[in-house]
Amino acid sequence: QVQLVESGGGLVQAGGSLRLSCVASGRTFSNYGMGWFRQVPGKEREFVATINWSDRSTYYGNSVKGRFTISRDNAKNTVYLQMNSLKPEDTAVYYCAAKRFGLSVTANEYDYWGQGIQVTVSS
Predict the structure, then answer these.
(1) How far apart are CA 85 and CA 96, in angstroms?
(2) DSSP string covering 40-99, please?
(3) Percent of the chain beyond pLDDT 70?
């Protein structure tokens, strides 16, 4: 059974930083793309970033480009999201997701999801 478990969320002041982690278990993720999405109540899930396990190809949403960095540690089956220069509008529940074969910016193309973790940025 595939499990994705996020950690590292919390409350931070505007301009600060947080690093989210997502530990994946249950299968080999060498052919999986991993993504981060976020969601606020009443809005659709928003794409944040994605990375391929097999190479270092990455892609970012426009609202986080230049501030967030996605990376992964294959030996630990872990994906990270380093978030710098945080803004109040980054406040959301952040979700880790896994997709077989390749990358995507579309939430419904992902096969597995974590439970989500709250990130709150105060002004």
Answers:
(1) 21
(2) -TTS--EEEEEEESSS--EEE-TTTTTTEEEEEEGGGTEEEEEE-S--GGG-EEEEEEEE
(3) 100
